[in-house]
Amino acid sequence: MTEKPIRVLIAKPGVDGHDVGAKVVCRALMEAGMQVVYTGLRKSPEEIAKAARELDADVVGLSIMSGAHLPLSEKVAESLKAAGVTRAKLLVGGVIPARDRGALEQLGVAAVFGVDATLGDVVSWVRANAGRAA
Amino acid sequence: MSGPKVVWDSGIEIAPVYAPDGAEKPGEYPYTRGIHPLMYRQRPWTMRQYSGFGTAAETHERFLFLIKNGNTGLNVAFDLPTQCGLDSDDPMAEGEIGRVGMAVDTLADMEEAFADIDLNKISVSLTINGSAVAIMGMYFAMAEKRGFSLGELRGTAQNDILKEFVGRGTWIFPVEPSVRLVGDTIEFCARQVPHYSPVSVCGYHIRESGATPAQEMAYGLAIACAYVDHVRARGLDVDEFAQGISFNFDIYGNLWEQIAKFRAGRRLWAKIMKERYGAKNPKAMQLRMIAGGGGAGLTVEQPLNNLVRSAYYALASALSGTQTMALCSYDEAYTIPSEQAAKLSLRTMQILMTEIGACDTVDPLAGSYFVESTTDEMERRIVQMMEKLDAEGGVLKAIAEGRVQADVNRQAYEHKQRVERGEIKKVGVNCFVDDEKSPDVEFHPYRREEAEKQIARLARVRAERSAAEVDRTLEAVRAAARSGENVMPSVIAAVKAYATVGEICGALKQVFGTYQEPVRF
User: Fold this and answer.
1) ipTM over the 0.85 cut-off
2) CA distances from residue B269 to B180, B228, B286 in whole angstroms, order as listed
3) Which end of chain B is more exposed for a tag (fewer CB within 10 A), N or C?
4) Which residues 45-104 on chain A approach chain B with CB closer than 8 angstroms?
5) Selection from B190, B172, B278, B272 nearest residue B231 by Cα
């Protein structure tokens, strides 16, 4: 198939500076043939939504290590909606307690990858759920 | 003085130092065996657990708890807004106030956190980088207000901005002015706060971001040289300021590899300072360090295993002749340590220090064919890497272009893949796995009402201070930043007028601009 590659935006919302994981995931998705844009650190929800719109992202992945995943995911979800980004699936990765997963799903998060997730888990999920064939 | 006699149960008396005639002794150049002749026989390492969360009042309580339990230094964690130079009422701070460290907006917070603590007895390490000039200024101003002289203060600021561009990420200003601010603190401390170490160069976070131990040391020493070069260019001699540069290294991984890394790094730093920079003062040649942490070695799976890992890491650190030690707590792979976990880290070090003989004699591994040979090989590899960095334009350029970042991240990716393929074994993760899942992670609770309290407190300080005085002192900060004169005196004046961290960093941003992150893979 010669379809366009899946487009993924990986973003660091808030002020957490730990981005080893985010960049490792970027690399894994790139090696799987996807088009990946990494926002860099400390992006506001509005900046993330703008980047997602410009990329016409199939998937937006947020990396959050500080424990602020609930307020940050909520704001990004709102900003994506306000920016008209309705098609992209929202992922959250990082140090996320299992008991917060339900709350994240209610905010519109399609999947959560905790610290025990493998790179393979993330790649397969994106492939299967990006909304089109790879 | 070699401290009290050490006699084993079997009646054997232990000498502080063992060495054949003519062999290198501890406390002698090039300090392979340690920077003091008697090391732990005279004074054991400082135990300095990283701590801080919530408001200044809550952090103050944890400080008192740690001191009561035998912590001999404090290692202050600041929340992310403080570290990024943002006030608690900044929209970007929402959800993060007091979360991963103490929230500090103004001098009032610093005063509350350190109330009643003897600042001339307890050495205080401030883990602060991007906003270091403001926070160091607050610490110094607070100490002076409490009646201590700057000359009495002992401690360290992390203040290694170059590694923040590689890992950790709390940069604010572009690379060049960032290094200049570090230079300002080094110069200021050399003249006014002589026992305070203004910089702790961190190989640590570069290692945590994916570097090998040899790279950790190579990048760390190269970054330290970049600061030395900068301050020398101001006309200062290394003998005047280099003793203010200390180091922070990581201790997870292969035990022997860490030991070789530390012994080689200590020797190489002494040679660089003497041979390249012409240091004559031994203190300028001695690599003083905190060797601790080990966070990247810990796992969320079977978290109590981390207690055992930390104990081995602590042993590596003690066998390497560290000055200060701090251990990541067993729950620190996923949260701010609980009080119990922090205490267990402290007890781990205390057991090592008092029960199993880690302080009996200095550098007990010296003369081991294995350890000496791997130390030499480690030194050769570190030198090669530093030469390659220099040949490619130096570490400043490599960081500004994002090359170091891309390199260590590629390695982090390869490491993760090798763990997933089972080529690198990790107990509880890819071998000796439990049938039942580990219990859900317990987070340190985030209390919105504490954040609101902090914002209200900031509003009160803003209302009570003299706005004219704040404007005047902030203008002086801008003027110093523009003219190139040392910003520290004007920052301290602004702090005393209760200008906020955000206002001070904001004033500097107006002059310096903001770092634009090079994203490259």
Assistant:
1) yes
2) 22, 12, 7
3) N
4) 66-68, 70-72, 95, 97-99
5) B190
Amino acid at B282: P
B409/A24 CB distance under 8 A: yes
Structure tokens at B309: 């890992």
pLDDT at A26 exceeding the cut of 60? yes
Residue B200 φ then ψ, to 5°: -120, 105
**Reduced to 3 states, what is the DSSP secondary structure of residue A94?**
strand
Query: How many whole angstroms separate alpha carbon B36 and alpha carbon B42?
Result: 9
| CA atoms of B37 and B28, how far apart (whole Å) | 7
| A116 to chain B, closest Cα gap in Å | 8
Decide if B409 and A118 are in contact by the 8 Å CB cutoff: no
Interfacial B residues in 75-94 facing A (CB < 8 Å): 80-81, 83-84, 86, 91-94
CA B202 to chain centre: 6
- Tokens 């602020």, located at residue: A68
Q: Which residue has the tokens 């730990």?
A: A18
Domains and CATH numbers, chain A: 7-129 (3.40.50.280)
Chain B neighbors of A121, CB-CB under 8 A: none
Q: Name the pTM for this structure.
A: 0.95
User: Phi-psi category of B159—alpha, beta or left, where left has phi over 0 and alpha has psi -120 to 50?
Assistant: left
Q: How confident is the model at residue B1 (pLDDT cuts 50, 70, 90)?
A: low
Sheet with A7-11, edge to edge strand ranges: A35-38, A7-11, A59-64, A89-94, A111-113
Instruction: Report the SS3 class of residue B92.
Output: helix
Q: How far, rounded to the nearest angstrom, does the alpha carbon of residue B197 sit from its chain's CA centroid?
A: 11
Class for domain B33-420, per CATH? alpha beta
According to DSSP, the β-strands at A35-38 and B324-325 are unpaired
Give the Cα separation of B5 and B14 in Å (integer). 8
B140: nearest Cα among B57, B100, B198: B198
What is the distance between the alpha carbons of residues B238 and B202, in angstroms, rounded to a whole number? 20
Contacts of A58 (CB under 8 A, 6+ apart): A6, A7, A8, A87, A88, A89, A126, A130, A131, A132
| Chain A to chain B Cβ contacts (< 8 Å) | 100
Write the residue in A40, A66, A99 that is nearest to B80 by C-beta: A66
B420 CB near a chain A CB, below 8 Å? yes
**Contact yes or no for B49/B327 (Cβ under 8 A):** yes
Give the closest of B81, B412, B517 to A15, CB-based. Answer: B81
